[in-house]
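User: Please fill in residues for this 122-position structure.
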């Protein structure tokens, strides 16, 4: 017999889990957006400061050295930011997958059990 109370309870649990998951994923996207905005702002400010400094340089050699140092520091900053964003995306993926860990593990266990029972013994 179908138990409406049990179905209602399971439905409520599923909705609560989904809402918590959506909230956690939303926080992850918000952290990524904040980090990206902060990096963009800092990168722009560094570029403007570099152009101001470059405008005051008197020799080609000094300008070349200044530009080389700026490119090197910009690249290192970009690599560090890309690494940080990669970690944030990895954390976001783990957070998004978390509600599905138990059901996927149970389904995998059931499928491997069914496959083992069907496979002929050698």
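Assistant: Residues filled in for all 122 positions:
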């Amino acid at each position: 017999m179908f138990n409406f109370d049990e179905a209602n309870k399971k439905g409520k649990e599923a909705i609560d889990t989904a809402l918590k998951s959506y909230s956690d994923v939303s926080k992850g996207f918000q952290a990524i957006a904040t980090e990206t905005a902060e990096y963009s702002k800092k990168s722009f400010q560094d570029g403007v400061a570099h152009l101001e400094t470059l405008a005051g340089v008197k020799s080609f050699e000094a300008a070349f050295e200044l530009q080389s140092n700026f490119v090197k520091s910009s690249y290192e900053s970009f690599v560090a930011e890309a690494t940080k964003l990669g970690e944030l995306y990895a954390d976001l993926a783990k957070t998004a997958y978390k509600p599905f860990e138990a059901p996927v593990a149970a389904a995998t266990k059931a499928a491997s059990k069914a496959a083992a029972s069907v496979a002929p013994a050698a």
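For context: Residues 4-93 form one domain.
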